[in-house]
Write a structure and sequence with these properties.
There is one protein chain. This protein has 10 helices and 8 strands. The chain has helices at about 15-25, 25-35, 55-65, 75-90, 125-140, 165-175, 190-195, 215-235, 240-250, 255-260; strands spanning about 45-50, 70-75, 95-100, 110-120, 140-150, 155-160, 200-210, 265-275. Strands 1, 2, 3, 4, 5, 6, 7 and 8 form an 8-stranded mixed β-sheet that branches. The longest helix has 18 residues, at about 215-235. The chain binds S-adenosylmethionine. S-adenosylmethionine binds near residues 11, 19, 23 and 74.
């Protein structure tokens, strides 16, 4: 996987092969989080920033043949990937796939009963996400739901690697993003963006994806890629040389870390859910 699994539109960790591997490694918790939103049969739902379409099959199952799923992404190759996925699954639910931006949604007002947006906010500035939330509210019907899932990388761990190393990397990424960027630590702090556009009845819930050794092969493969990804990010930040060396060594020989009988991967994420006033 080349250049941090970058899309043609410049988003790291967002190429379809990476997204599929990540989704597979965390499928149980990711699908539980989507079910938690409460999408009903017959609803019209938008998957905003759908990536490789990991959530699309479950969205189709939830809305059923009386419902409708739209999925939009900025990267044309990701939409092409979802087109293949939908074709091969012989999906019976009407699906509308589009290349486009969450900043300027190509949908009429009040088109959807629910907007689901997973792991996109992290790539945006605070100003952009404010605009995106305005778009989500605009395209959602009165009484409908807006649900945003985001990571909290301040809790990412590859135990028994000292958790303070990844915590310092998260802090350095945050400092570099300064006041303007949201970043992959924004999961717990999206409430104000919901309230600012008038969304009500906010609910927030966190999940911890936890995978102890021994890991199944697909999970192991993804975590190996992630260890290397984090080591690649680390060299772009101001970190103590001992942290850089520990991450470099882990990336050079990930089997040593993953074969530890006490190895544990931990990834935390938050779903924020708000309702458009009826
Ligand atoms: C980390 S991936 C998440 C994909 C998927 N939602 C998931 O959780 O598996 C981020 C996705 O956001 C898309 N993206 C980034 N900025 C976007 C924008 N302004 N409008 C639409 N999609 C965007 C990227 O192309 C990428 O597919």
């Amino acid at each position: 996987m080349s250049d941090m699994a970058m899309t043609s539109t410049g988003h790291r960790g967002s190429a379809a092969s990476w997204l599929d591997a990540h989704f597979e490694a965390a499928r149980a918790e990711y699908e539980e989080a989507l079910r938690f939103v409460g999408i009903q049969s017959g609803w019209s739902v938008l998957d905003a920033g759908c990536g490789a379409g990991g959530y699309v099959p479950l969205l189709c199952e939830l809305v059923g043949v009386a419902g409708r799923v739209s999925a939009l992404d900025l990267a044309p190759e990701n939409i092409a990937h979802v087109e293949r996925l939908v074709r091969e699954a012989n999906c019976t639910v009407p699906i509308d796939l589009r290349v486009g931006s969450v900043l300027d949604l190509p949908f009429a007002d009040s088109s959807f009963d629910c907007v689901w947006c997973a792991n996109v906010a992290a790539f945006l500035t605070k100003a952009e996400f404010g605009r995106v939330m305005g778009e989500f509210r605009r395209v959602t019907k009165p009484g409908g739901l807006v649900a945003v899932k985001e990571l909290d990388v301040t809790l990412l761990q590859f135990l028994p690697l000292d958790p303070a190393i990844l915590a310092r990397l998260a802090a350095a990424r945050r400092a570099k993003a300064a006041e303007t960027g949201l970043g992959a630590w924004c999961g717990p702090s999206l409430g104000p963006f919901f309230r600012r556009v008038g969304l009500e009845e906010l609910v927030r819930r966190s999940w911890l994806v936890e995978r102890w050794a021994p890991l199944p092969p697909a999970t192991r493969q993804f975590i190996t890629m992630l260890v290397r990804f984090m080591a690649g990010l680390a060299v772009e930040h101001d970190l103590p040389p001992t942290d850089l060396e520990a991450l470099r060594a882990a990336a050079a020989d990930p089997d040593r870390l993953l074969d530890d009988p006490d190895f544990c991967f931990r990834e935390a994420f938050v779903v924020t859910l708000g309702c458009v006033p009826a």
